[in-house]
Design a protein that fits this description.
The chain is of the alpha/beta class. Helices cover about 25% and strands about 20% of the residues. Helix 6 packs across helix 12, helix 6 crosses helix 13 and helix 9 packs across helix 14.
Length: about 550
Amino acid sequence: MQQRITINLNTDSKTTDKTTILEYCRSHGIAGIETPCGGKGTCGKCKVTVTKPYCKDVLACQTKICDGMEIIVGRKESTGTKEDSMVVLTNGENVSEKFNEHVNEHVNRNVVLKEETANESEKVESNEDTLAACDIGTTTVVCYLIDKETGQIISTRSGANPQRSFGADVLSRIDAAARADDNDKANGGLQMMQTQIVSLLNGWISEMLTECGRTKVSRFSVAGNTVMCHLLMGISPEKLGKAPFMPDEYFGREFNPLDIGLENCQTMIIFPAVSGFVGGDITAGMMETVNCNELTLYLDIGTNGEMALGKGDRYVCCATAAGPAFEGAQIELGMPASKGAVDKVWLEGRRIKYLVIGNDRPVGLCGSGLIDALAVLLKAGIIDENGTILSGQELPILFRSYVFEVEAEETAKSTEPYLAVHIAPGVYITQEDIRKLQLAKGAIAAGIEVLFKEYGCKPCNIDVLTFAGGFGNYIDKASAAAIGLFPQELLDKAKEVGNAAGNGAVSAALSQEAWERALEISGNMRYIELASYPHFDEMYVEHMNF
């Protein structure tokens, strides 16, 4: 949705003529500017329209404001009938069963979480009867209000993480948290990001309580990666940006919500982290879905690529910085899974076919569409095993019309034309995009290989391959196997478990036994730092190819 902003330097004490448009929007709570690179000017996705004193599109992170400047932020509605919104997986609707017998025994709720609107006649006032849970992701946030007696989710809120203006990935936010605002040293990135997430949760919880006729939450359960939890609590994640990547806080305990300004909650628990880059979202998801008797490979490929392998009382885990490319953040026409995103691509005879979220005009490619597109290009012979877009006589004649040159003047990233492949009208994937996707999938595949080595097993020994999170829920598993994201022999064992971290947070809000199981899992987890793992670089390079 578009917003029109007028700058008045005379009445705004927060702003000077050295402030960029991006900094202005951050400090004034104005959303709608995507900055995957964290404001470094390298991604080109923070464009806004300045209508006064000049009329042109500019990069918000590189353009200084001036008095009287008029700015348009956000995309124009493509249909005029519905606001664009990011697709957020809220309650694991695709979960057909819950694996954890321990949780099943002690949690009084249905196998598949349902959302129910409270009947006016059934509204209650007791604070003890209302619980809440939240999954704070790097890209999206989901919050639930729960009836303690029935175990039912009675209200849900979900949306984009407002901290995205500081960067698409955790490393960008670590960097932003370490920097102080030039105009106000006490109001740097850390404080601003904490304010953003706390304000979002306060607003949602207040809305849900009012909607359901309740007054207060007795227990608030939070799952999130280690960096998101640091930012929530106002703890600097700066140490996570440099070796040995040790966090200041591993959580796994109770906190006072009032300490961070979180209202209407009596107590708050935050899931335990295993390391700086394997956080409480993984322990929550594994507690919820992993059967202790089945050897499980657990993958959560969101903005960060986190994975674990094991069963019973022994697990190994690792993390890769792979997610931003798969979520479109580093891709020329990449975008979140929102209206206008191509989310499915397939071959039909000699034609590349596609689907668009919202059945709207295609605008870009989201993660599931990118993985499908790679698999299609490989199957059609448009790219070779090295990921190179073929041209001339090397290219199959049936698909030559799909390959074209992007002229130099169409991009600020290159002075030379480069090859690209048409996917949909106005939407294409470039050679540089393919290289970035190869880096991402190579990192994940190499991470999986390391887990196999460290656990002492092979793909044939795996009982279940679990895909958690929104991205894992929507990608085509056959396409992912075709490009080598995971071993082909695991395809028949692959299943998605929806928003496992969110469901785990709900379980822990309801059940002390579930919470203790999460603590037990984190204690049985051994973290492997891939950056220092012997021969990881060689494995990484090997897995980049198809």
